[in-house]
Design goal:
Blueprint lengths: L2 H4 L2 H5 L3 H14 L10 E5 L5 H10 L5 E6 L2 H10 L5 E5 L9 H4 L4 E7 L8 H11 E10 L5 H11 L23 H11 L19 H8 L3
Parallel strand pairs: 1-2, 1-4, 2-3, 4-5
Helix pairs in contact: 3-4, 7-9
GO molecular function: polyprenyldihydroxybenzoate methyltransferase activity
Pfam family, one: Methyltransf_25
Organism: Cloeon dipterum
C-alpha cells in the first residue's frame, strides 16, 4: 500500500521535516541527562535516508567512536551510504524483528547508546523489538526512542481500508498503523514492554504534538504513494 513512497529515499529525504523536528526536540531534552563515556558506540535504528543520523544525531553526540545507522529498506541504506560518507559512520540493512536476527551475532561488541526516531510505530511486535534493542545495549547503556502512539492519519488509513472503493488496495493497512493507535494508555503499555525486556525506565511520556505541512504535496510525499 503505502510502502512504495517511504522507500523512495530521495523523496523521503526532502519531506522529513516532522521527523527532524521531533528528533531534535528529544535530543535537546535528553542528551545532557545521558552519561557519555570517552568513546561511545552508537546505533540509530530506522535511519531512513540518513539525514537525521548524519545531520542531527551525529553533531549532538558528546562522544563517539562509531555511529551505525540501520534500516529495513535497502534503498534507504544505499541512499544514505552514497550521500553521507563521514569518518566512523556506517549504514547497513537490518530488520530489527527478523525471525533470524540475533543481536549479538551481528553486533558482538554491542552499543553504549541506541537511538530510534519515528521508526518503531511501524513494528507490530513491540515486545520483540524492545527485547532485541535491549540485547544490543551494553551494561549501563541507554536507549532513546521517539515514535507515534497515534495519529489522525492512521484513522484515515483505517477508514479508507473499509471503503469499498479503496479496500482492495489496503488489505495490509495494519502494517501502517501504530500498534498503540487504539490503546487507552500507551505509556503504561510501552513501559510494560520496556520492563519486560530488562530495561530500567527513566522517563516515558506521551506528548500531544501538532504539525502543519506546508502543502498537500509535502503531506503526500511523506505518507502516501502516488
Amino acid at each position: 500500500m503505502f510502502a512504495g513512497n517511504m522507500h523512495k529515499a530521495q523523496l523521503y529525504s526532502s519531506a522529513n521535516a516532522l521527523q527532524t523536528r521531533d528528533a531534535a526536540a528529544a535530543l535537546s531534552l535528553y542528551r545532557d541527562a545521558m552519561s557519555w563515556p570517552d568513546e561511545c558506540d552508537v546505533l540509530d535504528v530506522g535511519c531512513g535516508s540518513g539525514d537525521v543520523t548524519s545531520q542531527l544525531l551525529l553533531p549532538a553526540l558528546k562522544s563517539y567512536s562509531s555511529l551505525t545507522g540501520v534500516d529495513v529498506s535497502q534503498q534507504m541504506v544505499k541512499y544514505a551510504m552514497s550521500k553521507y560518507q563521514q569518518p566512523n559512520v556506517t549504514f547497513r540493512y537490518l530488520d530489527i524483528v527478523a525471525p533470524d536476527f540475533r543481536p549479538r551475532d551481528l553486533f558482538p561488541r554491542g552499543f553504549h547508546k541506541v537511538f530510534s526516531f519515528y521508526c518503531l510505530h511501524w513494528i507490530s511486535d513491540q515486545k520483540l523489538a524492545f527485547s532485541n534493542l535491549s540485547e544490543l545495549l551494553l551494561p549501563g547503556g541507554e536507549l532513546l526512542v521517539v515514535f507515534l502512539a497515534s495519529a489522525p492519519l492512521f484513522t484515515i488509513y483505517e477508514r479508507l481500508a473499509k471503503d469499498s472503493t479503496w479496500s482492495r488496495y489496503m488489505k495490509d493497512v495494519s502494517k501502517f498503523v501504530s500498534p498503540y493507535q487504539h490503546v487507552a494508555n500507551p505509556e503504561d503499555e510501552l513501559k510494560s514492554h520496556l520492563l519486560d525486556s530488562g530495561l530500567q525506565v527513566k522517563d516515558c511520556k506521551c506528548i500531544l504534538q501538532h504539525f502543519s505541512y506546508p502543502s498537500a504535496v509535502a503531506l503526500k510525499s511523506n505518507y502516501i504513494i502516488q
